[in-house]
Amino acid sequence: MRVFVIAGEASGDKLGAALMAGLKQLAEVEFQGVGGPLMQAEGLDSLFPMDELSVMGIAEILPKYRHLMRRINQTAEAVIAAQPDVLITIDSPDFSLRVARRVKAASDIRTVHYVAPTVWAWRAGRAQKMAKVIDHVLALFPFEPPYMEAAGMECDFVGHPVVAERVASVGEAGAFRAEQGLGDAPVLLVLPGSRRGEVSRLAPVFGDVLRRVVAERPDIRPVIPTTGNVTDLVRSAVADWPVVPLVLDPRGTDPVEYKRQKAAAFAAADAALAASGTVSLELAAADTPMVIAYDMNWISRQIIGRMLKVDTVTLVNLVSDTRTVPEFIGKDCQPGPIAEAVLQVLDDPGDQRAAMQTTMERLGKGGEAPGLRAAKAVLKGLQAGA
Q1: Burial class, 301, CB count within 10 angstroms (exposed 0-12 / middle 13-18 / buried 19+)
Q2: In the predicted model, is pLDDT for residue 60 greater than 60?
Q3: What's the Cα-to-Cα distance from 324 to each of 158, 160, 239, 312, 330, rounded to whole Å?
Q4: How far apart are alpha carbons 229 and 194 in whole angstroms?
Q5: Residue 28 burial (CB count, 10 A)
Q6: Of 146, 213, 337, 381, which one is least surrounded by beta carbons within 10 A?
Q7: How far apart are CA 45 and CA 322, in angstroms?
Q8: pLDDT at site 175
Q9: Is 384 left (phi over 0), alpha (psi -120 to 50) or beta?
Q10: What does the DSSP 8-state code read for residue 190?
Q11: How far is the C-alpha of 261 from the C-alpha of 255, rounded, in Å?
Q12: For strand 154-157 and strand 271-274, is the pairing parallel, antiparallel, or unpaired?
């Protein structure tokens, strides 16, 4: 079997590698495509470096637009020339779906897209547009298949990769506290995002929240795991915070060791204040109660606020079908109410732990690994279409 697989960023590389490993368990497979180091370790010879596609935002994309269009055309031509049994595109829809459109215009190659668009939250029309070039969708969330099927695509829920992540043990959490001199103090994870714009916008708010929390709980110890691209920005932003946080810096640290350290920090924390996003699922996996807060620029706030179709953006709330995780989004991202919520969660997480457990179960914890489930779904689709 010949598979052409495309990923455009680190999260997609991770999904792709797990899918490739699953396919290799089930069939004799030849891979072509675009991917990062994890996919390459599974046998992919990348058409070009994946990091050429890892750009976000209009300001970043515009200077590289012509180059990206050349890469789109190059990739589509490579797919058509290879005539694989299936083209699998992973997330990165601006790149992936443009490639799929060109492939479908010139062939009948089966197309699979891994990671459903969030049409349940906003811009529902994306599903109909996607259905013109995608045959089959692999969904991360159990409530997504009906949206994709209604638009005319096959869709399988294959589980979220967070359920396959290793969670630190109680012993590892205790060792982290001892190594970092935290003792028995209450630990608050502070997670202002992994993008520079997020950190710049949220760090001042989170600092003000911490100032109010410390006034009530002077023994609190904040910990901030960072990504290398924002570590210096984080250090600068927290310099005037009332308590200097422990900043975990991945630079110069073995990636496996840093991953272990970060997991131990999540497990050691009593609570977390986090930007909205998939980090809420990482916290749920670690059984760490949380408060979610997020803001954006005024224009984005107005546009997205009018387009949102859900009353919560926190994934734990959505997957568990509860509203137990407090969230403060947009104009509600104010230090006073956020601090009150953090203090309340530190004192009593309420029903959060039950909601987090439900979330993990519904995302596939305890079942087959998501990569293997995704591989089986791909093969099932190929056999049904044969």
Answers
A1: middle
A2: no
A3: 25, 21, 32, 11, 19
A4: 8
A5: 7
A6: 146
A7: 44
A8: 96
A9: alpha
A10: E
A11: 10
A12: unpaired
- Please give the full DSSP string across 92-145, using - where no structure is assigned: -HHHHHHHHHHHHHH---EEEEES---TTTS-THHHHHHHTT-SEEEESSTTSH
Phi/psi region, residue 159 (left: phi>0; alpha: psi -120 to 50; beta: rest), is: left
Which structure tokens are listed for 162? 């967070």
User: Within its chain, how far is the Cα of 66 from the centroid?
Assistant: 28
**pLDDT value of residue 196:** 85
User: What residue spans of the chain are helical by DSSP H?
Assistant: 10-26, 37-41, 58-61, 65-82, 93-106, 125-131, 145-150, 170-179, 196-216, 231-237, 255-268, 279-285, 298-307, 315-320, 335-347, 352-362, 370-385
Model pLDDT for residues 259-284, shown as the tens digit of each residue = 999 999 999 999 999 998 889 999 99
Q: Are 378 and 88 in contact (CB under 8 A)?
A: yes
Confidence of residue 303 (pLDDT cuts 50, 70, 90): low
Instruction: Indicate the DSSP class of residue 46.
Output: B
The DSSP secondary-structure symbol of 314 reads -
**CB 330, CB 307: distance < 8 Å:** no
The tokens of 378 are what? 């791909």
Instruction: Kindly tell me if the per-residue pLDDT of 339 is higher than 70.
Output: yes
- Reading the block at residue 255, the tokens are 């990636």
